[in-house]
Write a structure and sequence with these properties.
The chain is mainly β. The chain has 2 domains: about 160 residues; about 70 residues, no CATH class. About 10% of the residues lie in helices and about 35% in strands. The strands form 4 sheets. It has a 4-stranded antiparallel beta sheet with strand order 1-2-3-4, with no helix packed on it. The protein has a 4-stranded antiparallel beta sheet with strand order 5-6-7-8, with no helix packed on it. It has a 4-stranded antiparallel beta sheet with strand order 9-10-11-12, with no helix packed on it. Strand 2 and strand 3 form a beta hairpin. The longest helix has 17 residues. The two termini are about 40 Å apart. The model has no long low-confidence stretch (mean pLDDT about 85).
Length: about 240
Amino acid sequence: MTPVVGDWDGDGIATPGVVEFDAANNVLIWKLRNSNSPGAPDFVFAYGGGGATPVVGDWNGDGITTIGVVEVDPATNFLVWKLRNSNNPGAPDIAPFAYGALGQVPITGDWNADGVTTIGVFDPTAAIWQLRNSNSPGAPDLGPLNYGIAGDRPVPGTFGVAAALRARDGAVVGDKAAGSLSQAALDETVAAALDRLRSAGVDSALLDRLGKAGFKVGTLSEAVLGTAFPSATGC
């Protein structure tokens, strides 16, 4: 049995799941739950064959964690990724592709904070990470890089680096899209917000910390309104 964790219904809360091997049918059975409590799974289905490694991620950036498996191609010893954009059985939504080799550990994460989970592999014999920013074959976008020691177990995750603010359902409110936000307009808004906090009696030390934070206009993925990097600001 393999534990998995993800936001299976897109409500912003990570909840548990398990993947069990059904030996009688040589398939993996996924059992996912939408609340952090005991009880029956909300999803039960088969996806992947015996020997496959379960992986999970938001492969298309829609805010929902979905399933995938990584299998070893016996003819080439390459790792073959088969990813789905929904939590149900069926064919992969992303055409199966090879990345990594036998003996490497499949890992997934949002390596560039664009809201999309992508692939990677970890070599446990040398603690080498090789990460890609797209779900496709090719050379690593990050690495090979060494972190850890031989025999370590990789634990990828978002460790306080960035948090995305998303639009509800990715929809535009009203009958037309809003105009683009300029850096000057953002700077004016930040200054006005700090003035209002000052007028409200907010502690000067906290205002000083907030004033040192940087605010920048940039391009983000669809339906993402903003991204915060608290570790970079110290706030």
